[in-house]
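Give me C-alpha cells for this 302-residue protein.
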Amino acid sequence: MSTRLVLVSGHTFGRRAYEGVFASAPYLEGRIEVPLVIGLPGEKTASTVGYSSIADLAREQGADFITAADGSLRSLAATIRAREPHYLLVVGWSRLVHPEVLRIPAALHGAEGAGCIGMHPTRLPLGRGQAPIPWTIIKGLESTALSVFFLEAEADTGPVIAQHDLPVRPRETSASLFYRVAQTHFTAGHDLAEALATRTVRGTVQSEESASRWPRRRPADGRIDHTMPYAGIDALVRALLGPYPRAFAVVGGQEYPVVSARLIPAADHDPKLAEVLPDRVRFGCPEGIAELVREVPGPVTP
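Here you go.
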C-alpha cells in the first residue's frame, strides 16, 4: 500500500518542499500518493510573509485542494481523517496544529510509520519560535540549518528527523538567506520522500538544555535608533529585506524604509543627525553617520 500524505502550507517554503516530494522517485513510482492539499484562504494571503499558493500544485498532481478556516486545522479534522493519511506535512504554517489533528495519523496507523512533520529554518533546538531568518542575521550567526522534525503540541519541540546545514555569509541578507532556505526545502522534501514511502521516518529527541526560543518580531521592531551602534543598524537593515517589512528611520514624524546602509566615520558629529535626501537618509549613530539608502516605491511591471 502506498503512503498517503496530506500537505499543508500557504508559504514559499512549503511549496518548495512539496515540489521536492513530487520530483522524487518514490512519488513518481507510485509509492507515495497525495489525496489532499490544504492552503490559506484568500483573506489571509496579504498578511502572510512569504505567501505562495499551492493550489496549482494540487491541481497538477490530481489532489483535492481546500483552504483552512482556522489555522489549527481542527475544523478540518474529519476531512483529514477521511483521507487516512500516514503523514501530515505542515510547512510554513504560522499556527500550531491542534492536538486532535496531530493524533490522526498515529490513531489510524499506529505510532510507528505515521506522524505529523514540519520544517523550521534553524538548527533546532536553537531558535525555536518566530522570525528565524531575520533573527539569524540580527544575532550574527555564522551558520544555520533547516531542521525537519516531528510536530508536537508545543512549537518546534519534536524529535529532529534531519538537519540540512546552511552557512551564513558575512554580508548575508534576509532576502538571500530566504532564497537559499527555500531551495533547501526542496532538497529536504526530496530527501525525505524515501523514508515517507517506506514509513521509516525516525527522529532524535531534542535537548531541552540546549534549547532557545526567539520572540516574534513586529514591523515596529525595525526602527533604527540613534543609540544603535552601526553594526546593529547594518544587521537590522540586512535582516529586513526580501519578503519582510523594511527597517526604517523616523525623521520629522515620517517613516523612511531603507534597503542598505554604509558608515561615514566621524569623530565630531551630531549623534542625532536626521537629514532626508532625495534617495537616502543621513542618520547619526555612535561611530559617525549612517547613510541609509531609502526604498523608493515604483511601478511593478507584470
